[in-house]
């Protein structure tokens, strides 16, 4: 059976994800490093050592075809797509074969600007309606891909 995996380091929608998964009777796995340890009722927690991309590698090795992954990391999302999973970000954007290349390219360009001493504007402050949009899109993703 499919499950929901959360790249839990800094994820603002952990509780919303667990609640939605519970409604559809899906297991939830939180994966975080030792600097972001968290435990939530209704979810299994896997804590990994700190290190570059440590959480990403553990998560991608656990994801199976049809699993949903909550992450804001474009690189991880690309790996999840390659394993035929369904990545979604904390704002409810579903990553797909149609949008991942453009997102990865944008990340690359932003990195080059920062390396050159430039500055990039950060994300907007999170609002309650962002959580609602995420919940609605996550539930639609579950209904369209896991309940058919």
Structure explained in plain terms:
With 148 residues, the protein is α/β, with parallel strands linked by helices. Helix content is 43%, strand content 16%. It has five helices and five strands. It has helices spanning 14-23, 54-62, 74-82, 100-115, 128-146, and strands spanning 3-7, 27-33, 44-48, 68-70, 86-88. The chain has a five-stranded parallel β-sheet with strand order 3-2-1-4-5, sandwiched between helices. The longest helix has 19 residues, at 128-146. It is globular and about 50 Å long. It starts with a strand and ends with a helix.
Keywords:
148 residues; alpha/beta; 5 helices
Summary?
It is built from five helices and five strands.
What spatial form do the alpha-carbon principal axes imply? globular
Q: Strand tally, please?
A: 5
Radius of gyration: 15 Å
Major sheet description:
5 strands, parallel
Structural class: alpha/beta
Task: Map the helices and strands.
Blueprint: E1 3-7, H1 14-23, E2 27-33, E3 44-48, H2 54-62, E4 68-70, H3 74-82, E5 86-88, H4 100-115, H5 128-146
Parallel strand pairs: 1-2, 1-4, 2-3, 4-5
């Amino acid at each position: 059976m499919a499950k929901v995996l959360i790249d839990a380091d800094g994820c603002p929608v952990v509780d919303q994800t667990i609640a939605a998964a519970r409604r559809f009777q899906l297991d939830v796995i939180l994966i975080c490093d030792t600097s972001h340890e968290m435990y939530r009722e209704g979810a299994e927690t896997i804590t990994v050592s700190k290190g570059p991309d440590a959480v990403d590698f553990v998560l991608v090795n656990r994801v199976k075809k049809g699993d949903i992954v909550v992450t804001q990391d474009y690189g991880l999302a690309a790996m999840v797509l390659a394993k035929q999973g369904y990545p979604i970000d904390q704002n409810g954007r579903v990553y797909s074969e149609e949008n991942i290349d453009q997102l990865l390219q944008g990340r690359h360009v932003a990195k080059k600007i920062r390396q050159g001493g430039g500055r990039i504007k950060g994300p907007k402050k999170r609002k309650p309606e962002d959580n609602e949009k995420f919940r609605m899109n996550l539930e639609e993703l579950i209904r369209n891909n896991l309940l058919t």
